[in-house]
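Weekly structure sync, notes
Attendees: PL (lead), two postdocs, one rotation student
Agenda item 3: pending single-chain targets
PL asked that the sequence for the first pending target be pasted directly into the notes so everyone works from the same version. It is reproduced below exactly as submitted, 148 residues in total.
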Amino acid sequence: MKFVLDCSAGIGMARHLDEALPCRYALAEGPREVLAPTLLYAEAGSTMAKYVKAGVYDQETAGRFVDAVVSVPDTFVEMEGLYEEAFFEALHLNHSIYDMFYFVLARRNAATLLTLDKRLNALCEREGVGCIHEVHVPSLEEEPSQDA
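Predicted structure, written out during the meeting:
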């Protein structure tokens, strides 16, 4: 299965946030290929720099999170090849051009977009681009009994 990783999902997984569990589970299921625009480097770095400035993380820890995020994609796609379509869609769909790089990459590759951005998820639903919503994770009570 093909996925496109956006910054929100990458940072969420690196920080082990509960809301990123569906993304983690999706990536753990069988063979997969993960794509991302080169924009991911800038967005992950920018996000973690804000956490450092706010005193949430030190520089070393933030750097490890960025490294973790950018190590997920198997392939990075240059923004130059996505720009025209991303720009058009940003205007047409009234959405951030940053998000449109991920959206366009997912659509072009018939990939599922991994994002924690609810507005971007809603856009994907409206436009027929696959995205991760919720994955049911069985609780211990739901696990099959060993006695059965």
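Discussion points:
- The first strand starts at residue 2 and ends at 5.
- The CA atoms of residues 13 and 20 lie 5 Å apart.
Action: rotation student to compare against the earlier draft before next sync.
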